[in-house]
Amino acid sequence: MVLSDFTFVGILILVAVLLPIVGLGLAWLIRPKKPNPIKQSTYECGIETIGDTWVQFKAQYYIYALVFVVFDIEAVFLLPWAVAYHQLPLYALVEAVILIAILVLALVYTWRKGALRWS
Amino acid sequence: MDAIVLWLTSLFPQMAVPTARLIVHIVYAAILSFVAPVVLVVAFTYMERKVIARIQDRVGPNRAGPLGMLQGFADAIKMLTKEDITPAGADRIVYNLAPGLAVIGVVLVFAVLPVAPGVIGTDLSIGILYVVAVGGIGTMAVLMAGWSSNNKYALLSAFRVVAQLVAYEIPMVIAIIIVVLTAGSMRMGDIIAAQNVPFLFTLPVAFFIFFVANIAEIGRSPFDLLEAESEIIAGFHVEYSGMKFAFFFIGEYMHLFVSAGIATTLFLGGWRGPGASEASILGALLGFVYFLAKTVLLIFAMMWVRGTFPRFRIDHLLDFGWKFLVPVGLLTLVAVALVLKLPFLSSPVLQWVGLLVANVAVIVVALAAVSLAARRTRSVALRSVAGAER
């Protein structure tokens, strides 16, 4: 029964995949095809590209990603709690507050450390 | 949907119910993935251009067709006939997959969007969680496009996308948790059924957080750093042309509609309104009209925001997400959970009032904290805004 709820999602994926295929196919039929090296060069406002594009990037992104993962896991824990909340006794509230408090501590710590400062 | 299945089986008595359901599902899927993109993109690009033009004291498109209404079709034909250019150093497989994924990811969200009483692709028990999960595909498409184009501006845009969407996904999920907490279910049908008073009036803070985070998730102005024209040309789709560019465009406008639709479902009571019911065709149509009206109202609000706010700087944007929306969201979550468990708020009316009071209290606390921070800051301009320099 639970699985049959997802049949529509499956059908929709199969049909939705057709949209880009049909669209790009149609465009492929009627569009001009005259490639040349100038056209295909990288567009950087008319200036010749210098160096490699795929560079290393700031470690700052890594810290943001870490904080994100922590909060995403928190969301995963809180969603089932939220669904069942009306049936739960009062200590469910206390438990959730403790969980959120731990996370807020983590947020305050990263904030104080300056990890959320974009420099 | 069930009514249509019943009607089909009564029209063709030899047809089994599963077959009829399959046919209805396929037709609905085809409508969502072929009719909806065309209609939505043409309608909302026209609306957006007219609204922005009016805000900027211009007329907007007025040449193609009456009042310029055929402008969208003209643009579509232009896109179809433009040459497709792939930059020389691009990662071809990823480069070609990205536009398709951008559209598919958004179309999939439509599966759980209740557009009218009884008309929903599938009312999943994890409906709203599915929306968040599938929403991630669009982000990935943008990242793929930025990375594979072999263009430094596109790559910069891809980095910004990651930072921005990561910062605003959290407040959005917290706002969703607040709604789920109040409704007691993740199923779209149950969330609508729980809104005898729309959550907009009982949970205004959650609505504000969801609305702002949604604008950031779509990447619209003032959060359009991923395609800031003055800084990184066009962002992740610099190198795309013709139909592939069009697919990013279609994806963006469908995303605009679907997130306004989800916001309508979560906070404005979805298709609910006087006379809307699942029982009759008229009631269902009426529900569809209510849903469209509320959604278009929200979209208009987003266009209004776009027309009147200047673009954020990247550090301000991240600060606003992490240091304002996330703490305020968590505070609201705790306050709402507390109000729902208070024993003396037994009747629904008392509970609504309690929720509203809790939300207002959170707003007051948040604004006081911001004002305090502004008074203490080293920035002279901020201090004078906060009234500390007098």
Short description:
The complex is a heterodimer of chains A (about 120) and B (about 400). By secondary structure, chain A is mostly helical.
Report on this structure.
The complex is a heterodimer of chains A (119) and B (390). With 119 residues, chain A is an all-alpha fold. Chain A has one domain: Up-down Bundle (Methane Monooxygenase Hydroxylase, Chain G, domain 1), CATH 1.20.58. In chain A, 63% of the residues lie in helices and 0% in strands. Chain A has four helices and no strands. In chain A, helix 3 runs antiparallel to helix 4 (91-112). The radius of gyration of chain A is 25 Å and the shape is flat. The model of chain A has no long low-confidence stretch (mean pLDDT 79). With 390 residues, chain B is mostly helical. Chain B has a domain at 87-313. In chain B, 71% of the residues lie in helices and 0% in strands. The radius of gyration of chain B is 23 Å and the shape is globular. The mean pLDDT of chain B is 83. At the A-B interface, helix 1, helix 2, helix 3 and helix 4 of A face helix 2, helix 4, helix 5, helix 6 and helix 11 of B.
Write the layout of secondary structure elements.
The complex is a heterodimer of chains A (119) and B (390).
Chain A: H1 7-30, H2 37-40, H3 60-84, H4 91-112
Chain B: H1 2-11, H2 17-55, H3 71-80, H4 92-109, H5 127-148, H6 152-183, H7 188-193, H8 199-202, H9 204-218, H10 229-232, H11 242-267, H12 281-308, H13 314-341, H14 348-376, H15 380-386
Helix pairs in contact in B: 1-2, 2-11, 2-12, 3-11, 4-5, 4-11, 5-6, 6-9, 6-13, 9-11, 9-13, 11-12, 13-14, 14-15
Which properties best describe this structure?
heterodimer; A: 119 residues; mainly alpha; Methane Monooxygenase Hydroxylase, Chain G, domain 1; 4 helices; 63% helix; B: 390 residues; 15 helices; 71% helix; 0% strand; globular
